[in-house]
Design goal:
Helix content is about 35%, strand content about 15%. With about 220 residues, it is of the alpha/beta class. It has a single domain, classed as Metal-dependent hydrolases (TIM Barrel), CATH 3.20.20. The chain has a six-stranded parallel sheet with strand order 3-5-6-7-8-9, with helices on one face. It has a three-stranded parallel sheet with strand order 1-2-4, covered by helices on one side. Helix 4 packs parallel to helix 5. The radius of gyration is 16 Å and the shape is globular. The two termini are about 15 Å apart. The structure holds fe (ii) ion. The site of fe (ii) ion has 4 residues, from loops.
């Protein structure tokens, strides 16, 4: 399995704070059957530092000394002109592919379908990060995002929360759930734990288990 949303790369955002913590997370990955991780540090309009992230990532690959395969991407907070900055190489896509992990405001209602459309026509394939967190998103909005070329990622921990149950069921029922990811930040809380997600999908939607916990991330790995 590939974890496509992870703040494992330490010391660059609100994720892992030390090499020791990153190593603890790598141990959790190994125990969870995750063999590949795309590190997705935060990027936004004012904080891009792509060169710094590349350097830090290549240093980390040496330090980590792990059998878990590591790749670099980013979680980009959507902003106007984001497509231009992707084109000029100022933002990171998922391991250099046209796929981009993009997050939106959780509180101020944003036109996510329009943003997805804009990125799609610019030649990118947007993956909406933690789709369960946008309370303002309607069912019609979800379908619209899909029609506009968007993919959906949910955090594994969402399966532990009753408040997310309806949405998760809806996405799975319509086969619109593309990725379950850890979005891990720390080794204690917000860590790597796919237990609840795996148990639910195995029980309720076993036909989608292999897609979500087997070959899900292969499209990014070149
Ligand atoms: Fe994240």
């Amino acid at each position: 399995m590939t974890d496509i949303h992870s703040h494992l790369l330490y010391g660059v955002d609100d994720g892992a704070t030390s090499l020791e913590m990153a190593r603890a997370l790598l141990a959790q990955y190994a125990a969870s059957g995750v063999d590949s991780v795309i590190c997705t540090p935060h990027q936004n309009k004012t904080l891009r530092r792509t060169d710094v992230l590349r350097k830090r990532f290549s240093l980390f690959q040496g330090e980590a000394a792990t059998t878990v395969r590591l790749y670099l991407g980013a979680e980009i907070y959507y902003y106007e002109d984001m497509a231009d900055d992707l084109k000029s190489g100022e933002l990171l896509t998922m391991n250099g592919t046209p796929y981009v992990l993009v997050e939106f405001s959780l509180h101020n209602e944003e036109r996510i379908p329009d943003a997805v459309y804009e990125l799609s026509i610019a030649g990118y394939r947007p993956i909406v990060a933690h789709i369960e967190r946008y309370g303002y998103l309607t069912r019609d909005g979800l379908f619209e995002i899909r029609e506009n070329g968007g993919l959906f990622q949910v955090n594994a921990r969402a399966f532990e929360h009753r408040s997310c149950a309806k949405l998760l069921k809806f996405l799975l029922k319509h086969e619109m759930l593309d990725f379950v990811a850890s979005d891990c930040h720390r080794d204690a809380e917000r860590n790597v734990d796919f237990t609840a997600a795996k148990a639910y999908i195995l029980k309720k939607f076993p036909g989608q288990y292999e897609k979500l916990f087997g070959n899900n991330g292969k499209i990014f790995l070149t």
